[in-house]
Specification:
276 residues; alpha+beta; Alpha-Beta Plaits; Muramoyl-pentapeptide Carboxypeptidase, domain 2; 2 domains; 4-stranded antiparallel β-sheet; elongated
């Protein structure tokens, strides 16, 4: 599989334009707008009529069964606040729009989304953790604690993985193919890397993880190995296999931190004594 078919996704919500004036707009719509045709076109037309470039355009749509409004977040490089107010007035006249707000740049050339919190992935609240923080956490853990750090992280992420299975996978997955597709997609969307399910039976699983952010961060740390993602996947597998942490034996047979092109994580449904 690898990473060649994917492109970086820039989450945005912060725009930097040297010498520019990036305003942000929060366009709130009713749920009916999701199935209405032409809404995005109508929003974009307002900015085109003002002859201003759109710097960022995103939509936030709550999943089915979850309360909340549909929102379109737009950033544009404007002349001044008068133009922002004029644009807001036009946006308020669009079908299904219930509210429009705008935010001025927080400093010269810098604009931010002033309304969105918390960050959500489906129905889960999410924390965006920059790679620099992860590297420091792992370096301190492995350098100051050693292998005991790996045991602790494995157990923490195992328990989290099991809860995710019970609260999400159990509700959505109907077949083995469903499980594989959701597992691969969530690993990538959460930023772990590009996960490929190589083998999945009733008692064995083999995963490859390309561009694994955890092990990319472990390069140069002697003796370090995958612990977070290995535990997370074990926890999810425990739900799929209907077992517990004492009956899933993990192994990392290839690792980016050791110079391999990908990490390979293998699991067997058999007795295991975790460190923690």
């Amino acid at each position: 599989m690898g990473t060649e078919n994917f492109e970086p996704y820039y989450m945005g919500r912060l725009v930097v334009v040297e010498g520019g004036n990036p305003f942000f707009f929060n366009v709130v719509l009713s749920r009916e707008a999701v199935r209405a045709l032409g809404i995005i076109e109508e929003v974009a037309r307002v900015f085109r009529e003002e002859n201003v470039p759109i710097l960022l355009f995103k939509a936030s749509v709550p999943p089915s069964g979850v309360d909340g409004d549909v929102r379109i977040i737009v950033s544009a490089d404007l002349k001044d606040e008068k133009q922002a107010e004029r644009i807001a007035q036009k946006l308020r006249r669009i079908r299904y729009v219930s509210r429009v707000e705008y935010a001025k740049p927080i400093m010269p050339g810098v604009g931010v989304d002033a309304w969105s919190h918390p960050q959500m992935l489906h129905s889960d609240r999410a924390l965006v953790l920059s790679e620099i923080y992860l590297k420091e956490i792992l370096a301190f853990g492995w350098g100051g604690i050693g292998p005991g750090f790996a045991g602790l992280m494995y157990r923490v992420f195992f328990e989290a993985g099991r809860k995710i299975y019970d609260e999400l996978y159990e509700k959505l997955v109907r077949t083995r193919e469903d499980f594989i597709k959701l597992l691969e997609a969530r690993a990538r969307l959460l930023g772990w890397g590009v996960l490929e399910v190589v083998e999945l039976t009733e008692d064995k699983a083999v995963f490859r993880v390309y561009d694994n952010i955890e092990c990319m961060s472990l390069k140069g740390i002697e003796g370090a190995e995958n612990a977070l993602l290995r535990g997370l996947l074990a926890g999810i597998l425990s739900g799929y296999w209907k077992t517990d942490g004492y009956h899933i034996k993990p192994a990392e047979t290839k690792c980016i931190a050791r110079g391999d092109p990908y990490c390979q994580l293998e699991y067997r449904k058999e007795k295991y004594e975790p460190l923690v």
